[in-house]
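Tip: read the tokens left to right.
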């Protein structure tokens, strides 16, 4: 006779919610649902029902459960969930997932390479984004479901990933269902916050009422209405408190003891006592144990001591049984319905419900519980050689249950340190906090130091600072002081990367105070590198002297000395770190030097990056290698305008699974596409990476992508889109970042020129220069070294020649983008000085970049033509026709209109923009041929007379004569015969292009 219900009762609303959520996921509208309730209330039953309904829809289902043993195992529910799917179906082979395989390799064993990339740990947000992409691929056709149970027992990393998925699942074909108890903690905080943000639905499961209990009992007994006596219903309803699990436990006890038995015509129940629910549950399990054989009973009590889930290996060590006896007893316990094999791990078992293990432990006196825990801990320690992290946590838990807090603290602390070294900083913080609370006085400070580092690397800088500030004083130079100084240095690095300058400075001061006047060379090197990177962050305006705000003020001697000293210190730190075996510090130092040495040119900067690459490859530091490749690719893009090296760097970042670096590279590739007028490619990259970078909290890449989005709109002359994108850029803190020069010069100044607002463009370029004067800046595309000198030359500024020479002599003058503008600046100045040949040569030099930067080239032609017209040199009309044609086709009417106005000022006939211009070949449009003239030109291939042309086009012969004269002038034809031959050749070429042999008869224009 079974004592479990075959149907779910009393949960119609919850089942309906899950049904709706499944339908939504199938339509691509993902949702997150959290089911909250006490142990045994029916959360797992609902999760199972959801899985069955998903299977009916042919939706992939991934199901995992957190461990209930109290052990901190990073990502256990996620590993189990993915394994539950891929163990049978195999991991998906989809190219879209290629960038995310390294991030997911820790969860999907099939994707683990033979050698992991040393020195790099996938961030939590990268892993969460990768999981989100994987779920989206799995659910592409019908939707998919991921069920994560007992989240209250989850590790910190899993909670962070679940929060990320819940917040970003909308719009994806994914349903996330999580179950948890209403116990205070990170899981409940997550569920409540997600409900408050409207990113998840939360349902708290309440106890069943008497009617639902009656229905459940009847379902368990396969009984019809009225067959079970009301006394039995009352007994179960009162003692189970509406908890479905306890209903089943107490019902099984009634059946086992014979107090509830089948009688003729129904069921009969004997008199019942009035025990309370907890005591009744404990006594129920005690009675069931008493009916088992002694070895099985002993085994279950030991298993319960190990927790709600236990491994065969641990149980073997504790019991001392051989495999034959051990598995015989496990089989007996399974047949009794007390335990079951754990589907997620072949060598683990789990109690049917966590309350089972609790009840079994509660059936023993406290002294016996402590003795069993002590016995189990000793057995595990003696049977294992080097304990794994999970075994060490189990031993710590058992020692704590036995009353040995100090030993438990040291075990927890050791596992916490191992997890911190492995990059699982959230789980490390949990264990280190637990260890700190149990620690003896002599251990507490050392544990606090590691806990502070874990908190900082988890993104909780405030908590890390509070921990370090609360430490008692330590004499400078002592071992304790050096350990604390290292913690201060690491927290300072995290604060610098988070652009929290004030906190970073505080930590550096604290570290130096602890190290005293003579720190070891490697300690000084680590501090110098942090200080150098910190010096490159922009200071608030209020922190600088007001004289630095003048647009044309030069850097002060103090500024120059500060940067020179930073460079000397960074170089010494790089060499010291290499000598002292600190390769990560060395790579950070060479990276810093590459930025600082740009002031002397890109060759020296590249040499520093090559050194960084060599150190990274020597020590197999994959993330530093990828970073070096990205920076080398960035320099190559800036110098040449090409993106080949950046694409190589992107492949390295993708292979590593470094999503943050991948997004940084995507931003650079998007900007290169904007400069190259490849609008569609730039848009595709921005759309692919912008929101993902926000989800990853990759602030620097996100800001840069927002700026690219604004720059894309600005270069296309779309002012409203530019303003919207800049508003988002500002909300993300862009105007407090190092990107201000690009925002003002490359985006807003170009946007002003697309609107033919040159005064505003100059004001933006002046503002960019003013910012660069106040801050160390290495963004050489801000206009300072190209566009600004050209505008100053065109406006006749007195010092425009000096500005041109200064830009030419700077590293920024080496860049392909800037060289184009500087060559045209040279042309304008030469033309004004009466050197037309030199001016034409300078224009030809600039034209070499025309294919790389077509939009900028045509804008530069429009600007240069203005100077050429004023000083009578070059071919300004031809340049204006070319630029007018380009900007008219691009839809940038202000610039196209300005080109037409300048042509009219030059006394040139400007064609009206009539329909049919798109049919005119580009070279004829550029020459100024109008649609009506082109109609005449097409007919000339047949060599008709003027009268015939007039009749076919319904115009007068005199008008034909005018069109003929204009065509000969615009095409440079010597006479009518040459013009007819040109038309025939054009028709021949068109016929060949269309795949027809011979010279086809031209189509008569409409």
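Filled-in amino acids:
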């Amino acid at each position: 006779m079974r004592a479990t219900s075959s149907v779910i009762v009393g949960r119609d609303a919850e089942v309906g919610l899950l049904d709706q959520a499944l339908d939504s996921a199938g339509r691509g509208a993902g949702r997150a649902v959290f089911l909250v309730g006490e142990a045994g209330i029916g959360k797992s039953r609902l999760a199972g029902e959801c899985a069955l309904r998903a299977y009916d829809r042919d939706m992939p289902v991934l199901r995992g459960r957190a461990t209930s043993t109290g052990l901190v195992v990073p990502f256990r529910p996620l590993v189990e969930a993915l394994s539950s799917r891929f163990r049978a179906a195999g991991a998906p082979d989809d190219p879209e997932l290629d960038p995310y395989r390294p991030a997911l390799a820790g969860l999907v064993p099939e994707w683990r390479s033979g050698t992991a990339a040393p020195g790099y740990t996938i961030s939590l947000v990268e892993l969460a984004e990768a999981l989100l992409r994987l779920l989206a691929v799995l659910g592409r056709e019908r939707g998919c479901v991921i069920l994560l149970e007992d989240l209250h027992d989850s590790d910190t990393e899993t909670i962070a990933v679940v929060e990320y998925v819940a917040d970003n699942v909308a719009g994806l074909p994914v349903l996330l269902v999580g179950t948890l108890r209403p116990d205070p903690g990170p899981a409940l905080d997550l569920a409540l916050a997600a409900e408050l943000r409207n990113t998840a639905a939360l349902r708290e499961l309440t106890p069943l009422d008497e009617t639902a209990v009656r229905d459940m009992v009847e379902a368990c007994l396969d009984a019809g209405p009225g067959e079970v006596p009301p006394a039995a219903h009352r007994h179960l309803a009162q003692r189970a408190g509406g908890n479905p699990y306890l209903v089943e436990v107490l019902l099984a006890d009634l059946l086992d003891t014979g107090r509830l038995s089948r009688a003729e015509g129904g069921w009969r129940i004997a008199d019942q006592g009035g025990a309370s629910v907890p005591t009744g549950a404990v006594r129920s399990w005690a009675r069931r144990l008493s009916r088992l054989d002694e070895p099985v009973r002993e085994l279950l009590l030991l298993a319960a001591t190990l927790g709600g889930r236990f491994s065969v290996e641990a149980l073997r060590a504790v019991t001392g049984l051989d495999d034959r006896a051990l598995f015989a007893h496990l089989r007996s316990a399974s047949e009794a319905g007390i335990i079951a094999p754990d589907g997620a791990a072949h060598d683990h078992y789990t109690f049917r419900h966590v309350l089972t293990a609790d009840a079994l432990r509660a059936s023993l006196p406290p002294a016996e519980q402590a003795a069993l825990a002590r016995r189990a801990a000793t057995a595990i320690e003696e049977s294992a050689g080097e304990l794994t992290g999970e075994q060490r946590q189990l031993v710590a838990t058992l020692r704590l249950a036995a009353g040995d807090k100090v030993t438990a603290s040291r075990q927890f602390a050791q596992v916490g340190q191992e997890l911190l070294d492995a990059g699982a900083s959230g789980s490390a913080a949990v264990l280190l906090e637990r260890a700190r609370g149990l620690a003896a006085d002599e251990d507490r400070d050392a544990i606090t130091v590691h806990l502070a580092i874990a908190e900082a690397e988890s993104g909780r800088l405030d908590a890390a600072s509070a921990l370090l500030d609360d430490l008692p004083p330590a004499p400078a130079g002592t071992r304790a002081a050096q350990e604390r100084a290292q913690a201060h240095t690491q927290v300072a690095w995290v604060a610098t990367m988070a652009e929290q300058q004030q906190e970073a400075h505080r930590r550096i001061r604290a570290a130096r105070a602890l190290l005293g006047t003579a720190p070891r060379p490697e300690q000084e090197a680590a501090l110098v590198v942090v200080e150098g990177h910190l010096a490159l962050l922009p200071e608030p305006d209020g922190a600088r002297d007001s004289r630095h705000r003048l647009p044309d003020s030069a850097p002060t001697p103090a500024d120059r000395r500060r940067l020179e000293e930073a460079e000397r210190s960074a170089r010494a730190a790089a060499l010291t770190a290499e000598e002292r075996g600190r390769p990560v510090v060395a790579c950070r130092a060479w990276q810093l030097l590459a930025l600082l040495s740009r002031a002397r040119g890109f060759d020296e900067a590249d040499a520093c990056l090559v050194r960084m690459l060599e150190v990274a490859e020597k020590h197999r530091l994959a993330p530093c290698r990828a970073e070096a490749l990205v920076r080398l690719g960035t320099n190559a893009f800036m110098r040449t305008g090409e993106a080949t090296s950046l694409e190589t760097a992107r492949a390295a970042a993708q292979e590593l699974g470094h999503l943050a670096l991948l997004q940084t590279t995507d931003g650079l590739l998007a900007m290169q596409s904007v400069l190259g007028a490849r609008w569609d490619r730039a848009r595709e990259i921005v759309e692919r990476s912008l929101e993902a970078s926000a989800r990853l909290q990759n602030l620097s890449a996100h800001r840069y992508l927002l700026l690219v989005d604004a720059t894309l709109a600005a270069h296309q002359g779309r002012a409203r889109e530019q303003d919207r994108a800049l508003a988002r850029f500002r909300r993300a803190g862009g105007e407090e970042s190092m990107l201000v020069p690009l925002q003002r010069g490359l985006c807003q100044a170009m946007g002003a020129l697309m609107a033919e607002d040159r005064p505003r463009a100059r004001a933006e370029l002046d503002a960019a220069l003013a910012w660069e004067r106040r801050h160390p800046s290495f963004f050489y595309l801000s206009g300072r070294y190209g566009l600004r000198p050209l505008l100053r030359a065109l406006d006749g500024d007195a010092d425009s020649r000096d500005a041109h020479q200064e830009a030419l002599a700077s590293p920024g003058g080496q860049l392909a983008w800037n060289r184009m503008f500087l060559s045209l600046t040279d042309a304008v100045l030469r033309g004004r000085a009466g050197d037309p040949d030199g001016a034409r040569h300078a224009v030809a030099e600039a034209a070499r970049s025309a294919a790389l930067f077509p939009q900028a080239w045509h804008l530069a032609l429009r600007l240069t033509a203005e100077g050429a017209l004023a000083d009578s040199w070059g071919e300004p009309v031809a340049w204006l026709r070319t630029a007018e044609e380009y900007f008219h086709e691009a839809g940038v009417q202000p610039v196209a209109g300005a080109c037409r106005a300048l042509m009219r000022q030059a006394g040139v006939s400007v064609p009206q923009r009539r329909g049919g211009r798109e049919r005119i070949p580009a070279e004829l449009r550029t020459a100024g041929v109008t649609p009506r003239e082109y109609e005449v030109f097409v007919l000339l291939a047949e060599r008709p007379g003027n009268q015939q042309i007039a009749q076919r086009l319904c115009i007068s012969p005199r008008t034909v004569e005018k069109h003929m004269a204009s065509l000969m002038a615009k095409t440079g034809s010597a006479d009518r015969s040459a013009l007819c031959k040109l038309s025939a050749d054009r028709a021949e070429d068109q016929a060949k292009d269309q795949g027809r042999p011979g010279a086809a008869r031209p189509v008569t224009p409409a």
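Residues 275-383 form a domain with the Arc Repressor Mutant, subunit A fold (CATH 1.10.10.10). The first helix runs from residue 12 to 26.
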